[in-house]
Design goal:
The complex is a heterodimer of chains A (about 150) and B (about 130). By secondary structure, chain A is of the alpha+beta class. Chain A has helices at about 5, 15-30, 40-60, 90-95, 105-115; strands at about 10-15, 60-70, 75-80, 115-125, 125-135, 140-145. The longest helix of chain A is centred in the N-terminal third of the chain and has 21 residues, at about 40-60. Helix content of chain B is about 40%, strand content about 15%. Chain B is globular, with a radius of gyration of 14 Å. The chains are: A alpha+beta (about 150), B alpha/beta (about 130). Adenosine-5'-triphosphate (ATP) binds near residues 82 and 105 of chain A.
Chain lengths: ~150, ~130
């Protein structure tokens, strides 16, 4: 049984260098959890998108990576959290091609397609939390917005 | 980490390392746009074989880079996008627009030769 310290990693995110650290840590943890091949790239890419959103739209926050179990399912959970400005219109933010800045507007809807479970919680003036899960050998997709 | 830019004949080859920060990518874009003028190159290859992730920011930057290089009168080829990266890009909904791509560096060179009708060198500079 691996210890708690080995199965959870928290990465403070405040610069573009931290985006790299977050996705490298995520890839390493996903590998430990048993993921391989293109799944590792999907996990790293999803982390890159939500971590960049923190730097770009909220300046600082954190990405918490965790190995998870549910019955005999194993996987990885990625939580990106910040206390930035929050998102006013969540369904708009989740639309392909919507960006309040100069982005392609693909970060959030794209990340959602890279994982099995996706939850976005945000309030203006309070902050934003994105929770994603990817299960080993699973390809269903569930999304929730609050 | 700075991206090394190699001059080969009339072409410039940038071999991107595993992890690039946003700053590194923007620097690469600006350096290439400058060096195309300095070396009077006809074409540029960005070799992304060892890159770990191509996310929305990286793709947007590569597209801008290719547009800038075109405005400078040269061609850009993105070479070596790995299968798992290609899969992640499709899932994200990202594409490179009309930027040319090649399987690897070798194919990239062949493509450039064709597009720049060989040689790769431009007219000699006359005056300034
Ligand atoms: N952590 C966050 N805090 C505040 N606003 C956010 C956050 N993440 C996303 N947003 C808002 O949601 C919009 C959509 O996000 P998304 O990541 O899809 O696109 P983008 O970041 O603008 O561009 P891209 O990710 O394609 O470069 C953003 O433009 C921004 O307004
Ligand atoms: Mg984004």
């Amino acid at each position: 049984m691996p210890s708690e310290a080995e199965t959870e990693v928290s990465v403070p995110v405040g610069s573009d260098a931290d985006i790299i650290i977050a996705r490298q840590q995520g890839r390493a943890l996903a590998e430990k959890a048993g993921f391989s091949g293109s799944d590792l790239t999907l996990v790293a890419t999803a982390i890159s998108e939500v971590a960049r959103n923190i730097v770009e739209h909220a300046r600082r926050g954190e990405v918490v990576l965790r190995m998870i179990h549910q019955g005999d399912k194993r996987g990885i959970s990625i939580v990106a959290r910040d206390e930035g400005p929050g998102i006013d219109d969540i369904s708009l933010a989740m639309q392909d091609g919507y960006s309040s800045g100069k982005g392609l507007g693909l970060g959030l809807p794209g990340a959602r397609r890279l994982v099995d479970e996706f939850e976005l919680e945000s309030s203006v003036g309070v902050g934003t939390t994105v929770r994603m899960k990817k299960w080993l050998n699973s390809h269903r997709s569930v999304a929730k917005y609050r | 980490m700075r991206v090394p830019i190699l001059k080969q004949g009339g072409y410039l080859i940038a071999s991107v390392q595993s992890a690039l920060t946003d700053r590194d990518l923007l620097d690469l874009r600006d350096n290439l746009a400058q060096q195309v003028g300095k070396f009077r190159s006809r074409g540029v290859i960005i070799d992304v074989t060892s890159l770990d992730v191509l996310d929305s920011f990286a793709v947007r930057t590569l597209r801008t880079l290719a547009q800038m290089i075109r405005l400078r009168g040269a061609e850009t080829v993105i070479a070596g996008i790995q299968p798992e990266i290609a899969f992640a890009m499709v899932q994200l909904g990202l594409d490179l627009g009309d930027v040319a791509t090649a399987l690897d560096l070798e194919e990239g060179l062949v493509l450039l030769e064709r597009r720049t009708s060989g040689g790769g060198r431009r007219a000699k500079r006359s005056g300034n």
